[in-house]
Design a protein that fits this description.
This protein is α+β, with helices and mostly antiparallel strands. The protein is built from 9 helices and 14 strands. Strands 9, 10, 11, 12, 13 and 14 form a 6-stranded antiparallel β-sheet that branches. Helix 2 packs antiparallel against helix 3. It is elongated.
């Protein structure tokens, strides 16, 4: 077991482990750490703890010191310089007529490097831009292309729920989200209703997915034939959260050209009250529907 300190550099950023050595650290303390990008200013997010060595990426970087008033002032000055740096870079982008959208900029704590984040539809040849920027800022320049989900995380905004975007306010990592999650939760499959402001499927579709999958086990699909205490029935609607299966009883089976007749009344059952009997044909139909949905929504499934 190795003792580590948890450090975060942004409000909703990833948490990284560092070697605290003999420092007495408390949650909320600001620290100066050594990273692959240089010296950085971070915040302790959890009490010092011990973790298995296999969970760490070696070698473990050290915490240099607890930040003092001078360090805090330096960090604040770096934050203030961001707007000017963005404007200067935008002027250079316009000068070179590059098809790219600037999103954010970061100074490393020791001012050894400045990083510009941008989005673009394809690859951008920014070699001349880097030369111009290096001449202006007199430090190492890095331009990093990001995706639309990262753009939303950096810029922030209000989601359809009326709250601040999860990715910007607290969600540290993006997780894969699929159209099947929306289908399992009986949500509208209209892309405009299940997509976030980034244009991708909303991250919150993932939150309750495991619960819905657990509730769906043993639950029949709409249109499926099941055996009930009152006889054979066809599923009309299911409610996973209430464990309800709405059906119509089979009054007369299909006979030759005569179609199957169903009761005019609806009958409700619970999952444990019924027995499923016909799956194969329904599964094939569902697979066809899923394939069609994936094709229609391929633009929002890139991530």
């Amino acid at each position: 077991m190795i003792k580590v300190a948890s450090v975060r550099f942004k409000a909703a950023g990833k948490v990284y482990y560092f070697d605290p050595e003999e420092l007495e650290l408390a949650v909320g303390d600001h620290v100066i750490v050594e990273t692959a990008r240089g010296m950085e200013y971070g915040t302790i997010t959890a009490p010092t703890k011990e973790v298995e060595e296999r969970e760490l990426v070696s070698p473990l970087k050290k915490i240099i010191r607890i930040a003092d008033e001078k360090d805090a002032k330096q960090h604040a000055e770096n934050q203030k310089k961001k707007n000017r740096a963005l404007q200067l870079c935008q002027d250079k982008v316009n000068k070179h007529k590059l098809d790219m959208k600037l999103i954010d900029v970061e100074y490393t704590f020791d001012n050894s490097k400045i990083i510009f984040y941008f989005t673009a539809d394809g690859r951008v040849d920014f070699r001349e831009l880097v030369k111009d920027l290096a001449g202006v800022f007199k430090m190492r320049i890095e331009l990093r292309q990001i995706g639309v989900r990262d753009e939303a995380k950096m810029m922030g905004g209000i989601g359809s729920c009326g709250r601040a975007l999860c990715c910007h306010s607290w969600l540290p990592d993006f997780e894969p989200v699929s159209i099947k999650m929306a289908k399992v939760q009986n949500l509208s499959l209209n892309p405009t209703k299940i997509s976030g402001i980034c244009g991708r499927l909303m991250c919150c579709l993932k939150y309750e997915n495991d619960v819905y999958h657990q509730l769906k086990k043993g639950m029949p699909d709409v249109g499926e034939h099941i055996k009930t205490p009152d006889g054979m029935a066809v599923v009309i609607e299911t409610n996973l959260l209430e464990n309800k299966i709405k059906t119509r009883l089979v009054v007369e089976k299909k006979n030759g050209d005569n179609p199957e007749k169903l009761s005019t009344d609806f009958y409700n059952y619970k999952k444990e009250d019924i027995r499923r009997i016909e799956k194969g044909r329904k599964r094939e139909k569902d697979d066809e529907i899923d394939a069609k949905l994936l094709e229609e929504m391929k633009d929002i499934l890139k991530d």
